[in-house]
Automatic annotation (TrEMBL), chains A, B, C:
InterPro entries, A to Z: Gly_transporter
Positions of the Glycine transporter domain: 14-87, 99-173
Lineage: Bacteria, Bacillati, Actinomycetota, Actinomycetes, Kitasatosporales
Name of the protein this chain belongs to: UPF0126 membrane protein
Family per similarity comment: Belongs to the UPF0126 family.
Keyword Glycoprotein among UniProt keywords: no
Residues spanning the membrane: 12-31, 38-58, 70-87, 123-144, 178-198
Membrane topology recorded in Swiss-Prot or TrEMBL: Multi-pass membrane protein
Keyword tags: Cell membrane, Membrane, Transmembrane, Transmembrane helix
Cell compartments where the protein resides: Cell membrane
Keyword presence, Lipoprotein: no
Organism: Streptomyces chryseus
Length: 224, 224, 224
């Protein structure tokens, strides 16, 4: 019922933009990790499609959209090729890439929540899956690159909160039967702007209180 | 047919206890890794629900229980909040947490095996999935925290064996048509007690024989 | 329709050979990482069955073959036992193991592509899943062992390209209605020989052009 929030072609174009910018972030990390051209392509694909793939497996939408829409599959390859040949230029516009990544975050948390609800999940579960759609690709990217996911690190600007806000707005709109192109658009923009502000003002989330036992910050190796 | 081993409300309460203690172990690792509050929540959710999620995807029970039962989703958040505010106190009762974790291990290996068999898997596959349900969340926790899974490390007390024993007992009971609340309970308690004994007496599993080529223990970087 | 490319028993035997050699590679890495006997068994299972499991989840073939065919499950355990007891001997025949691994790579990229197409995916998506089937287990192995996947590293001999070539040959054969036991066999052998040549002559893939910003090769910790 919500499938036509935007006209299909607008929706599809927005999806491809989100996939493209996420793929750029994956490809850039691959270059920094010194991966070869196939590593760049794999990390671009996983970052761009991983979140949606996870969502589709969980809601039972198989085969996932990532494998049925050729555009979803080829877009990350274009991003990977761009980074491969023009890496310093792409680095130089890192600010623009970050802004696009914020747009992808806003878009994916909204479409992820909507799609999960369409497949019969409850409102809370739908919002949780919307969050997973938005951040899942980045987590997979960091796991494959053998890094601590930047989503989890306290020394990174807020990334989860904008997506949580956007997904919750969609869930509330569904609850009060007010989901349409306008309210969806507002949710996307809200998440997008929150993420931009978080980067601009370096908003961070608090760590645990009373971390007395965490005196040795490097002691993580001795954990359970 | 085995769904009512215990009364539904008893079963559900036991599930929530298992989810809660697994979430505590995830949240504690997140604090030790210096993650922020969202990292703590994410690691609590993944540790608590990851094993069951994996099992449900494999047996085709979508959407997984983790996304259809609101209690499953909110319990890890409560555990995360507790650890966030009362971290040193929770650390201090690490012994109690370990005992609860052992209880979760026993419970999940039994319910995981039973559910897999209900969905039509063979006895061996069901026992394997019971093991995966019990240990999967902890492995995902360690992968996300960028650590070698403690399940795989030789310098940790036995963790897989109690779950293997519990899951195998359930599979044998099914084979001889003797699965009921009593035999299920015995399997849970056996796995639980074995894990307690393994921690008490530091039981370890052997490493490969003749590790002559493993002289340089840190040489793992050069592996294929 | 393509199910009987080879006679079922030949196909099954080839599958088991592929699973066995992939399991050996997993078990050997586990020994090098100093894991205990259960870690060796887990890494053997994941390496051998992970790629096919991923493919089956994506195409909706649940429960996956890994959990319905007892031979698929027990073969990695035999490989793990072999490595556990005869580790130095297996290391000594590393060349033979690598050749078998190349055979597994060729076989899995072909059967993976064919199975994905049978389940209704398009040609490009089928070839992509064939590649994922062939390399997925190795990536999971490296992630669990907390290493950078060797698939992504530039300092390893080509691994993805032979699988891409094999999977693409199958897709082309399907496109031109020419897939049969002979053409499938040619695709397997082509991927196999390409991988052997890549190891023999240390073929490597290029890294990104103009990596001026990658001057500090160890700076990867500071990545996004």
């Amino acid at each position: 019922m919500f499938q036509e929030l935007f006209t299909p072609s607008v929706q599809h174009s927005l999806d491809l933009v989100g996939i493209f910018v996420f793929a750029i972030s994956g490809a850039l990390l691959a270059v920094r990790k010194n991966f070869d051209v196939f590593g760049i392509a794999v990390l671009a694909e996983v970052t761009a499609l991983g979140g949606g793939l996870l969502r589709d497996l969980i809601i039972g939408a198989v085969p996932p959209a990532a494998f049925t829409d050729l555009g979803y599959f080829t877009t990350p390859l274009i991003a990977a090729a761009l980074v491969f040949f023009l890496h310093p230029e792409v680095e130089r516009i890192q600010g623009a890439v970050n802004a696009f990544d914020a747009a992808g975050l806003g878009l994916f948390c909204v479409t992820g929540t909507t799609k999960a609800y369409e497949y019969g999940l409850g409102l809370t579960a739908s919002a949780a899956l919307g969050l997973a759609t938005a951040v899942g690709g980045g987590v997979l990217r960091d796991v494959l690159a053998n890094e601590v996911p930047s989503l989890l690190r306290w020394d990174r600007d807020l990334y989860a909160v904008p997506a949580i806000v956007g997904a919750s707005m969609v869930a509330l709109c569904i609850r009060f039967d007010a989901l349409n192109a306008v309210t969806s658009g507002i949710a996307v923009v809200t998440a997008f702007v929150l993420r931009l502000l978080a980067m601009r003002f370096h908003w961070r989330a608090p760590r645990a209180w009373h971390r007395s036992s965490a005196k040795a910050e490097g002691e993580s190796e001795s954990s359970t």
